Amino acid sequence: MSAEPELIELRELAPAGRAGQGRTRLERANALRIARGTACNPARQLVPGRGHRFQPAGPATHTWCDLCGDFIWGVVRKGLQCAHCKFTCHYRCRALVCLDCCGPRDLGWEPAVERDTNVDEPVEWETPDLSQAEIEQKIKEYNAQINSNLFMSLNKDGSYTGFIKVQLKLVRPVSVPSSKKPPSLQDARRGPGRGTSVRRRTSFYLPKDAVKHLHVLSRTRAREVIEALLRKFLVVDDPRKFALFERAERHGQVYLRKLLDDEQPLRLRLLAGPSDKALSFVLKENDSGEVNWDAFSMPELHNFLRILQREEEEHLRQILQKYSYCRQKIQEALHACPLG
Length: 340
Prior knowledge:
CATH class of the largest domain: Alpha Beta
Largest sheet: 8 strands, mixed
Pfam families: C1_1 (PF00130), Nore1-SARAH (PF16517), RA (PF00788)
GO molecular function: small GTPase binding; zinc ion binding
Keywords: Acetylation, Cell cycle, Cytoplasm, Cytoskeleton, Metal-binding, Microtubule, Nucleus, Phosphoprotein, Zinc, Zinc-finger
Mean pLDDT: 75
Distance between the termini: 94 Å
GO cellular component, one term: microtubule
Shape: elongated
Number of strands: 13
Low-confidence stretches: 1-9, 11-44, 109-123, 180-185, 191-198
Subcellular location: Cytoplasm, Cytoskeleton, Microtubule organizing center, Centrosome; Cytoplasm, Cytoskeleton, Spindle pole; Nucleus
Number of helices: 5
Strand content: 15-25%
CATH topology of the largest domain: Ubiquitin-like (UB roll)
């Protein structure tokens, strides 16, 4: 097996627009369409996924459905999540899940020492502003320390290019276009959402040790890195389902910090040096419980308000019904009691 890393070129990126715009509406199933006359064929019928133990998702669950790809929104009914493999979906999508449960996934984390700096006491992360001369000196020092050909290089316009390594630590499955034939090289370059519209999707679990090297510019943002990784794997899930983390080992503890969308990973790589212990990048599910509402379009936000109103009305109806039933029983008991 070749030891050469697989590289993803990110030097020519189109300006990033509002997330979610221009994305093709995906069919809410990885099931087959049953045409007339084929319903009796058992090979063409939907086979439910085996081994899942779905239970209501927690109140802090703000994520995207692993089946249909739509955002799971609500206050009371937050969707369902498998207790074993963490497959997360809408209540309405439960009957359409075809992917078998893979069981608990051991992704090699160090739970005894790992700390998430988004929720624990903050750690001082040094991100000083460097002059052009300091950047040039840093690049020379960086290149002198590495033992491979993954060098950084300074450009005439003052920017610089280099390589970052991203480890994929995804617990939940990802979705790709469902097709009878494998994608061509042109399809892979176009990526999902371009060319022909995606009509169906199927899910699978990425290998737990998947690692990709990316060739990026100093101004490449974390959100663009995520989008490039998804295009590489032909993943059609919403990029907002994922987050890029930086991982550092300090004083016997492992610290994780979720990068902001506009942070520049190559700049962090240059400041930290080439050591993976000092800094490495990890792609994980964006399950922090926080929602960046500014990233949604106006139609999406209006739809969330309508869903919220319907859920509130249903919840109030159920509460009033319970109180009415209790009141009725008390009144029946009062009428049944003899006077005096």
